[in-house]
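Q: Convert this sequence to structure tokens.
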Amino acid sequence: KVYENLGDVDFDAVRWVKGGYFLYEKALEAWLCENIDRRRGGGFWRALGAGSQNVRWFGNYLPFGVQGSSIDLVVLHNARGAPRQAVCTVVELKRGPLSLKQYLLAAEQVRQYGHFMQHALKAYGKKPEMRLVVLSGLPRGKQGNSPGVLLRGPRGRNPDVQWIGYKVMGGSRVKFHRI
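A:
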């Protein structure tokens, strides 16, 4: 069967999900890119505490540096309740659950990406609010009810990094929770 949109695919019938997690980071990336500005992707924004967003632009797999690394996802959108305030959300994707140590490494990585994006946008005269996110598989046993983990950059110079977990719930539904 040929599907018109990734969101139409029943994830239970395709072998790219196992145990509630995407088997490949690229599958998570594809799902998020397709749904970032749709109702189905609203859970991601709610987990960030951002409500629904007016997405202006997004890009995935953006080249970073000379060593061949890339920024998984960048979204330019309006701030909640302040349509004139631009926000740049930089997302580092990890397909499965992370330990705290793995999260801290990913958080440092997304901080570097955010710093790069902030300076790139500044070159065009833009000064958006920066949001940095690590999106990983929801740790086993995590219900999403505990307070979010916020880590500050060195001497408070970097924005907070928010850790969001996901879980594929069946069909093409994906739930998001702040960790």
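The CA atoms of residues 62 and 71 lie 5 Å apart.
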